[in-house]
Design goal:
The protein is mostly helical and 458 residues long. It contains 19 helices and no strands.
């Protein structure tokens, strides 16, 4: 039988009740309860960029879509600091709660708050100082430069709000309150939709309107998270005495958070390589094509990613409680549910690609180029669950090295090299077929890692 690392226990904080659902409720029901709000929250967050793309595509044009395609990876890289700190710290919080170490949970949360706010603000300031080099690095050229700069200079101001929201969201789920985590991501989606219509359609503010709508939507989610942790609904509070950095806590947050940060870093590197390759072997139109595809990658996979996010606190809690039977069961059922949803997404993309593209634009050239590319990029979607659940599993139980390796495998080890190599021989087609090849190779490697680790529970 496996043994977890010994945990130093401290008295339970008065008024805080550890969520026993993670160790008593049937796994299938628990996964659904965690995954549905998480999935809806991810869907809502994806809608921020999807809605911008739809409004910009229909009222501004393909150059506006290309500008958003350039800018959003930069914004999400800054925000990924908060996501990394949130997921890394929340893995620790879940295990601490499973081990009934309440004081440690409070100390971890205090460190998360300081790190998330401080680091995201620093990155935002640097992003404003080096606007032109950053935009150029991410592929802003020609007619794309002007709308990209308009959008970027406004939206970048909301990156710290988004970063803290990402941190708080994972902590709320670690507390076992996924519905409130869902609201934190659902609220900005609604705000963004309303303000996009008001600013772009009614007031005619163009790219500035899209940018202000996104900025204010990030601010609304930030205010909700602050309110939640200040209310009686939350067990963990932002306490002044816990707002200090402890070396051993920061070190573990950094180790586990580096997985998420490395993932986003590789995604940002992928955006640089991809955007420049699309312009070199295609045209600025190709950026608009990928802009639609990237939104679909974020938007359509939300139920699968929701299960991966919902699975993590269940796995972390039961690993911390040494309940390996429930850990293994949660892994199996999460994989099964996510695979079924992946098949559903695959079927919709394959059957209705033209109808999907028409939602974003009526540009004849974009409509001609996008459907086939969309099908190719999503060709291995039924297997995507193995990648997502597998890397989430190792991160949830605190195993940094395999989690980091698996996180980097698709984009870093396979997709980026393939995008650099294949277009030299088959042009723009090489970009699109790089995605399913990378997915297949990453799935095989993840399966091997999972099989070797889970054998220990037999």
């Amino acid at each position: 039988m496996l043994k977890s690392n010994p945990v130093e226990h401290t008295p339970r904080r008065k008024g805080l009740k550890v969520n026993t659902n993670f160790e008593t409720k049937p796994i299938g029901k628990l996964i659904v309860e965690q995954a549905v709000p998480a999935g809806i929250g991810i869907l809502a967050m994806s809608l921020n960029t999807v809605v911008d793309t739809i409004f910009v595509g229909n009222w501004i044009g393909a150059s506006g879509i290309a500008a958003i395609t350039v800018v959003m990876p930069i914004i999400f890289f800054v925000a990924s600091i908060g996501m990394a700190i949130g997921i890394g710290g929340s893995s620790m919080i879940s295990r601490a709660l499973g081990a009934k170490d309440i004081q440690k949970a409070f100390d971890i949360f205090g460190s998360q708050v300081i790190l998330s706010v401080g680091l995201s603000v620093i990155l935002t300031v640097l992003g404003l100082i080096f606007t032109n080099p950053v935009l150029g690095l991410f592929g802003a050229t020609g007619s794309i430069v002007a709308p990209s700069k308009i959008y970027y200079n406004i939206v970048i101001l909301g990156a710290p709000f988004l970063a803290f929201t990402m941190t708080g969201n994972t902590v709320i789920r670690a507390e076992g309150k996924p519905k409130f985590a869902m609201v934190a991501l659902l609220l900005p989606a609604f705000v963004n939709i309303i303000l996009d219509y008001l600013f772009i359609n009614l007031m005619g503010l163009g790219m500035e309107g899209a940018a202000y709508a996104t900025l204010l939507s990030f601010g609304s989610s930030f205010l909700f998270v602050v309110w939640f942790f200040s209310s009686n609904l939350s067990d963990l509070k932002i306490l002044r005495k816990c707002l200090r950095l402890k070396k051993h806590i920061v070190k573990e947050i950094a180790a586990l958070g580096s997985i998420t940060l490395a993932r986003q870093g590789v995604i940002s590197l992928l955006a640089i390589v991809l955007n420049n390759t699309l312009v070199s072997y295609g045209s600025e139109l190709s950026l608009a094509v990928y802009g639609i595809i990237s939104r679909m990658l974020m938007f359509s996979l939300f139920p699968v990613m929701g299960i991966a996010q919902g699975f993590m606190p269940i796995a972390g809690f039961n690993y911390g409680a040494n309940n390996f039977g429930r850990l293994k069961e949660s892994l199996k059922k999460s994989m099964l549910y996510a695979s079924g949803l992946g098949i559903l997404v695959f079927s919709i993309i394959m059957l209705f690609p033209i109808q999907i593209v028409r939602v974003f634009t009526d540009d004849a050239m974009v409509l001609k180029e996008t459907p086939d590319a969309l099908r190719m990029v999503f060709a291995i979607t039924p297997l995507i669950a193995i990648q997502l659940i597998g890397s989430s599993y190792f991160q949830a139980i605190g195993k940094v090295r395999p989690a980091l390796f698996l996180t980097l495998s698709k984009q870093g080890f396979f997709l980026i090299p393939l995008i650099l190599i294949l277009p030299q021989f088959i042009g723009i087609l090489g970009v699109w077929i790089s995605f399913p090849i990378a997915d297949l190779l990453a799935t095989i490697i993840t399966s091997v890692f999972l099989y070797k680790d889970v054998k220990r529970y037999l």
